[in-house]
UniProtKB/TrEMBL annotation:
<keyword id="KW-0378">Hydrolase</keyword>
<protein>
    <submittedName>
        <fullName>ADP-ribose pyrophosphatase YjhB, NUDIX family</fullName>
    </submittedName>
</protein>
<dbReference type="InterPro" id="IPR000086">
    <property type="entry name" value="NUDIX_hydrolase_dom"/>
</dbReference>
<dbReference type="GO" id="GO:0016787">
    <property type="term" value="F:hydrolase activity"/>
</dbReference>
<dbReference type="InterPro" id="IPR015797">
    <property type="entry name" value="NUDIX_hydrolase-like_dom_sf"/>
</dbReference>
<feature type="domain" description="Nudix hydrolase">
    <location>
        <begin position="36"/>
        <end position="156"/>
    </location>
</feature>
<dbReference type="Pfam" id="PF00293">
    <property type="entry name" value="NUDIX"/>
</dbReference>
<dbReference type="InterPro" id="IPR020084">
    <property type="entry name" value="NUDIX_hydrolase_CS"/>
</dbReference>
Length: 171
């Protein structure tokens, strides 16, 4: 972002709240680009004892993750997670557990993650290239993004770092 969206003046770096921020250079305008993180919801979806892993369109063939998406205006994180499960997998689910809130600094996101129990036949939504169902002991968490939520889910199942499965990690 180079220009103020309110008055079109150049933005300049200033220290505000002890952090560098982009602020409008015009003395008549008080616009500050705060660059706050975007809220994201994630669901570790369980169907008949298996965990659903998804590969989004455009991801490399071996990169799988869990259902995730942006929180929309007017919905709670729980509603958002269940909406994403419906949109991406065609399943109605119920929240079983809250796994945690995770910072994903690389994408400037904060992730609200849940364990979701769902029933029915999984269908691949428009955003996905592929879906696979694995027993929890075959799932291996990754280090960033939704990976810490997967690690927490597995830990609560007594699986620690999981059973050494060979599933690839999400970016």
């Amino acid at each position: 972002m180079k220009y103020c969206p309110l008055c079109a003046s150049l933005l300049e770096e200033r220290i505000l709240d002890a952090r560098p921020r982009l602020a409008c250079s015009s003395p008549q305008c008080d616009y500050v680009f705060w660059n706050n993180p975007t809220p994201v919801v994630a669901a570790v979806v369980e169907v008949e004892g298996s965990i659903v892993l998804v590969r989004s369109k455009g991801w490399p063939k071996k990169f799988f993750g869990v259902v995730a998406g942006f929180l929309e205006a007017g919905e709670t994180p729980e509603q958002g997670a269940l909406r994403e499960v419906q949109e991406e997998l065609g399943l109605d689910g119920r929240i079983e557990d809250f796994l945690g809130i995770y910072s994903f600094f690389e994408k400037n996101q904060v992730i609200f993650a849940y364990h979701v129990q769902a029933e029915g036949q999984v269908s691949v939504g428009d955003e996905l290239a592929e879906v696979k169902l694995l027993p929890p002991e075959k799932v291996r968490p990754w280090d960033a993004g939704t990976g810490p939520a997967v690690r927490e889910f597995l830990s609560r199942r007594g699986l620690g770092e999981a059973g050494g499965g060979s599933e690839s990690r999400r970016p």
